[in-house]
Design brief:
Elements: E1 5-14, H1 18-29, E2 34-37, H2 42-47, E3 53-54, H3 56-64, H4 71-74, E4 76-78, E5 80-85, E6 88-93, H5 94-98, E7 102-104, H6 107-120, E8 124-126, E9 130-136, E10 141-146, E11 152-162, H7 172-175, E12 181-196, E13 205-208, E14 214-216, E15 223-230, H8 241-252, E16 262-275, E17 279-280, E18 283-285, E19 291-292, H9 300-321, H10 325-328, H11 330-352, H12 360-375, H13 377-388
Parallel strand pairs: 1-2, 1-11, 2-8, 5-13, 11-18
Antiparallel strand pairs: 3-7, 4-7, 5-6, 9-10, 10-11, 12-15, 12-16, 13-14, 14-15, 16-19, 17-18
């Protein structure tokens, strides 16, 4: 009977998403070894289409560290968004308000770039390897897993990072079995579609209407991503294409939409979550296993990258100098941004969506809030500053 295989590294990273791969990349640049594992196949990671609005400093980090040469050449720079309500569009000009932009570059393309960079550097990525448990005995930490052949694998490391998403296995080693934290679930979801069509607008449209919210977004010159507010229990296959297009068009009217064949549809539930603790001993959490936000504020992947910037600096100090001070301050250092992002995501969500119990007063108050934002330079600037991202301290990593 085969025995348990083993591996030894300085940092074991559970999860080959943007956070885990970017952390490995930054550690590798500092000469720190890591092993990244993920239960998914490489193909699944690189081809699952996900949202991709990147903040200015996320793009700067990807491009200037060599993690992605395509983000600037293939990504689409957006200098603003449109807030649409009461049948009228109002542009929020990011460049005029903050001097910063965002880039539309899908998450699976970020992952493709990061995987290629890690393999080119000879770093160890283990796909189809599923973490079962993370242990920390004080002297070392371990990831107990099963490999691609279903055989047991133990990875021993000086430090373990959980980057394995909202259903994290690693989180238990930090928060305990109860997994307590701060949680909110919203009474609506997004019905999302991918369609083959040219863009219906040059920038994203966030629309508040009496029928509910809609977001008109893009993925490429020929593939568009659009969302409309729906019941969380909606079966995405229950609507015809004609029903979907009519609902979208009603919510952005009179702005015209370019229709095309719909080839993917799904329902995305809305949750806000922050774990009760983000680090303990030789284990820390980054990205969605530490926190999740509603997608309205485009903060998910950017917040994960912000975690990684702080943790990479702390792990460099730990591995090079045996200095734990930055590891000890990791949680308070990242939580300030996490809660700012939670607030911004909640604010955008409540301002643009209709809740099931909303009264006519609530509806009119909401329109008053939107009008207050677009008619005030201070209101527009706050939205632009939060959307394009609060600055990251990147100098020591570049």
């Amino acid at each position: 009977m085969p025995g348990v295989s083993s591996a030894r590294t300085q940092v074991a990273i559970v999860g080959a998403g943007p956070a885990g791969l970017m952390l490995s990349h930054l550690l590798g640049a500092a000469g720190i070894e890591s092993i990244v594992i993920d239960k998914r196949t490489r193909e699944a990671i690189q081809t699952t289409v996900r949202a991709g609005i990147l903040e200015a400093d996320t793009v700067r980090l990807l491009s200037q560290t060599g993690a992605s040469s395509r983000v600037l050449s293939d990504g689409q720079r957006h200098d603003g968004i449109e807030l649409r309500f009461a049948g009228t569009g109002h542009r929020i000009d990011f460049m005029a308000l903050t001097g910063r932009s965002v880039w539309l570059y899908p998450q699976h393309e970020v992952l493709r770039d990061l995987i290629a960079a890690r393999l080119a550097d000879g770093q160890e990525l283990r796909f189809e390897t599923e973490a079962v448990r993370v242990e920390d005995d004080g002297a070392v930490a371990r990831v107990l897993a099963t490999d691609a052949d279903g055989e047991p694998l133990t990875i021993t490391a000086d430090f373990v990072v959980g980057a394995d998403g909202s259903r994290s296995v690693a989180r238990r080693a930090v928060t305990g079995p109860a997994g307590e934290g701060y949680f909110r679930e919203y009474p609506f979801a997004w019905f999302g579609i991918l369609c083959e069509a040219p863009a219906s607008a040059p920038e994203l449209i966030y629309s508040n209407s009496p029928e509910g919210f809609a977001l008109i977004s893009q993925r490429s010159a020929t593939v568009q991503r659009m969302y409309l507010q729906c019941d969380p229990d909606l079966d995405p296959q229950s609507w015809s294409e004609e029903q979907i297009w009519e609902a979208l068009e009603a919510r952005v009217a009179p702005h015209p939409l370019i229709r095309g064949p719909i080839f993917q549809r799904d329902v995305l539930r809305f949750r806000s979550y922050v774990a009760s603790s983000l680090s303990s001993g030789r284990v820390a959490l980054v990205g969605d296993c530490a926190h999740t936000v509603p997608p309205t504020g485009a903060k998910g992947m950017n917040l994960a990258i912000a975690d990684v910037v702080v943790l990479a600096r702390a792990l460099r100090a730990l591995m090079r100098k045996r200095d734990r001070s930055l590891i000890e301050s990791y949680e308070p250092d990242v939580l300030e941004r996490v809660w700012k992002a939670q607030h911004f995501s909640w604010w955008m969500t409540q301002m643009l969506h209709l809740t099931p119990e909303a009264s006519e007063f609530d509806r009119r108050r909401q329109l008053g809030e939107l009008q207050s934002v677009v008619s005030s330079e201070a209101g527009r600037r706050y939205l632009a500053e939060a959307y394009t991202g609060w600055p990251l301290d990147l100098e020591s990593l570049l």
